[in-house]
Amino acid sequence: MTAQALIGFGEVRHARTRPVANAFVYPTYFLMLPLRSLSRAPTPVIGTWAINQSGPVSFFDVDHGDGRTPAQGGAVAWLDELLHNAGIYDATGEAWLHTYPRVLGYTFKPVSFWYCHRPADDQGGALRAVVVEVNNTFGERHCYLLDNPQYGVEQRASKVFHVSPFCEVQGHYRFRLMRTFGPGPQRTVARIDYFDGDASDPQAQVLLQTSVSGTLEPVTRAALRRALWRYPAMTFGVMARIHWQAFQLWLKKVPFFRKPTPPQAFTTR
């Protein structure tokens, strides 16, 4: 059976612990897309929802990876190349993409999560890899590849990519990714904690705690209408809130760091 596109309604949480405390919670919605299944299906247009077509809510392959068009294989072809370059050839099951859509033609995706599964006949389609795709407000992109992850089990990666001018490019991330399957309401939680100390240092302390979570349901006309009525300019709001929170940190006199040169490698494993 072909997997179904899902929409999640939930919230974004962010908390800074020092040198001054700063925290916020915003309601949000996002897409959870089975891209391998969708790439094999006819281009769907469900009410206000479309793939690689203009619409109030839409998804475009070129917004991810190296910007490949559908004629070039799209984002799935880019994903497979990234995995193969890392020696991962058995993540050929479903590739679920947790991401923000374009809303009224505009999007900014601070972070997207690619959940790459094994085929159904290999360990029941277990999770094989996760690609964490990060964008900053300077138009730059970097990916963190988590090899052999497990839902609910912490994964770590060194921070090498500039995101906020109020954080240095040092330290490490700790990821904890969760998703429920099966009958009843499905939920997903993606948590990223940033430690500005080395991952091997047992005394390293958390600087930022962030998460995005939500309850998943099928993409339907009713769900899309609800998303648009509740959050008519959601992706514009993402960018506006980033700048508003930066202004709050500036007012609190949090140290400011200039943007360094991006890492040469596009992927950090």
Integer average pLDDT: 92
Main sheet: strand order: 11-12-13-14-1-2-6-8-9-10-15
β-strand amount: 35-45%
Structural classification:
alpha+beta
Approximate shape: globular
Number of domains as seen in the coordinates:
1
Structural description of this entry:
By secondary structure, the protein is an alpha+beta fold. The chain has one domain. Helices cover 17% and strands 37% of the residues. It is built from four helices and 15 strands. The protein has helices spanning 35-40, 74-85, 221-230, 234-251; strands at 6-16, 22-34, 45-46, 49-51, 57-59, 95-99, 102-103, 111-117, 127-135, 141-147, 155-158, 172-179, 186-195, 206-218, 267-268. The strands form two sheets. The chain has an eleven-stranded mixed sheet with strand order 11-12-13-14-1-2-6-8-9-10-15. Strand 12 (172-179) and strand 13 form a beta hairpin. The mean pLDDT is 92.
Write out key terms for the chains shown.
single chain; 269 residues; alpha+beta; eleven-stranded mixed β-sheet; four-stranded mixed β-sheet; 4 helices; 17% helix; globular
Question: What's the helix and strand layout?
Answer:
Blueprint lengths: L5 E11 L5 E13 H6 L4 E2 L2 E3 L5 E3 L14 H12 L9 E5 L2 E2 L7 E7 L9 E9 L5 E7 L7 E4 L13 E8 L6 E10 L10 E13 L2 H10 L3 H18 L15 E2 L1
Parallel strand pairs: 4-5, 10-15
Antiparallel strand pairs: 1-2, 1-14, 2-6, 3-4, 5-7, 6-8, 8-9, 9-10, 11-12, 12-13, 13-14
